[in-house]
Predict the structure.
Amino acid sequence: MAQLYLQLQAKLMRDYYKDFSKYAKGRAPSRKVAWVTAFTPVEILEALGIGYIYPESYAAVIAASGQEQGLLRESGRNGLCADCCAYSGCFNGALAAGTAPRGLPPRPDVLIATNNQCNTLPGWWNLLAEGYHVPLIVLDYPGEGMGKERALPYVTAQHKGLIAEMEGLSGNRLDEGRLAELIRNSRRSVAAWDRAAGLLADRCVDPTALFDGISYLITSRCRPETAALYDALYGIQAGSPLADGERTPVFWLGYPLWYHPQRYLKELLPDFRICGSNYITWWSLDYDGEEPMEQLFSAYNYTFLNLSAETKRVRLKECIDASGAKAAISLRNKSCKCDFVSAKYISLPQVELEIDMIDRGYLDMDRARRQMDILRETV
Amino acid sequence: MNILSLSGSIPEQVCDTIRFFGHGGSQRISHYCQYAADYISRVLEDEGVDGVVFPRSCDSSRTIGSYLEGCGKFVHQFHVPARRDAAAARYLAGEIRRYKEAVEGHYGTGITDMEERTGLVNGRNRALGRLYARLPELCYGAYLDMLHGLLQRPLRGQRVPEDLPACACPEGPRVFVLGSTQAGTGLIRQIEEAGLHIVGDRLPESRRLFSVPEVSTKGDLYENIAESLLAGLPSPSQDAFAEILKEDRDELVKKQVQGVIYITQKYCEPYDYLFPAYERMLDGLSIPVLRVTETGGGAGNAALAIGTFADML
């Protein structure tokens, strides 16, 4: 099972990064390339044979390789404010410096941003568009405010517009059967991921594997190998012993720290164990509906970060209850204001740590240690 | 009703709102726009405010509602589309209708004067446009003070003056001001006291406010208002950097601007992302730029920076 997992992981990684290598060797990619944000309806792009690159994910890779500080400074020298999302600082810094751990991504033929996670991304993509002079498409997802009867036609008009533009770019015609098949793949990936991630609540599962493992649900969710990968992950983890009852189950409320070897502050948690995290549920998109356009609407209009404060609170409570957490670590993330979920409504002992998911310089470890001591005493 | 509004994108044709300007309050939120935090403070602390309407156009405004939960006041988030095509106009028309119905439902009143209000907004904007055209000869600080006062009054009480005090430094270097809504006019006064001559702007409460085309009262009024709102000078939150850069390049050249002062709030990401592209555009025109960041209650040592900038020009 472990071997199958590694093989699938290697294949997905190879496929995702293959255009990076070609670009590094000075060759043009074999297909058109879009730079997309993490909640873009990539099933449409996949169906049309367009490659897609996630700058946010690549910034996480850069931070994990320990190169983010120099690149953040580089983007600052190019006018980007240090208060901006560090994903953009890190990635734009790599573009300016002309270097990154796996080389530079292939030049985009189109830029596609969505506002179903935050409003920062369309701004970042506008800035990228000024540098590359390629078409920019911003998809506007209104969330819950308007009601489905008005939001569905608005979003569907945009998805159809996106299809038309991408058909023009790729020279391919959309096969609706293929689109439906890719959405089925995404659904299977989500279901398999939820099953694997659900083991974190009561099994001795390494949270690092999940913080890293979810990247395939972001970058490859409509690929058939992704569900197989997560089935294999489930197979590996289901055999783990039950969680250590001596350690306090704690909920990790926010992003993984990409620069940290374990993606969370393991050194501060010797007597705690991570039993859940909202981050690892964000891509559990619900492709609800009868036909592809409605399914894409449901999945991408109702992403967690695009929900109303009230719905987010309810979902979060369900998530925390299911994890069995007795305490929570809430992260106030410099880069992501929309991630400041209503932690005040969580009726668990909790600490709020000031962090950035990319910029390691943001965390005051001494202060965090003192805060964890207080949490330990409270629990 | 005393509804406090946060943005120029809230359609004034629906009902009166008090436009928020100002500093102060108890809310301090990490990595969060202090202007938005001050708005939240005002809503929570001012008993005279019984309702709020704000957009969803930036990360701070997007989450305002979560800080106002349980405040017991009318809380409405108005969604201005991030796009400006025909589908967005139809969607925005529906959003304006939803806003009107929410006000009616909360306050138990029927709104029946939207046509009349449309005429008033059209007339006021025409008058503001005329005044703006005379800016090179007028005191910009007085102009902005007038605007801030105007937008905090009911529409029927808004009177645009025919004239304003003359500019004190008409021979000073010609500068252009842009950025997010000014919480106050202190920085603007500092700019003028440094001997700089403000000849134009791209501020939400000024040129962007009256840049919208006149709204026709013939046909579907909601669609007409929506089309007008989307046709004004766009905000950087509206997926329009290329358009902003082109429009401002033309304006700067036309007004023979010698320097630009870019004023933003701390943690105002739409303007933070626009800045590098704007700076490159200015480089191409050989126009220097001074960036000033407001952190709530002022801009630190802005006076020194502005003075130095003035000396350089």
User: Anything to note?
Assistant: Chain B has two domains: 3-107, 114-312. The first strand of chain B starts at residue 3 and ends at 5.
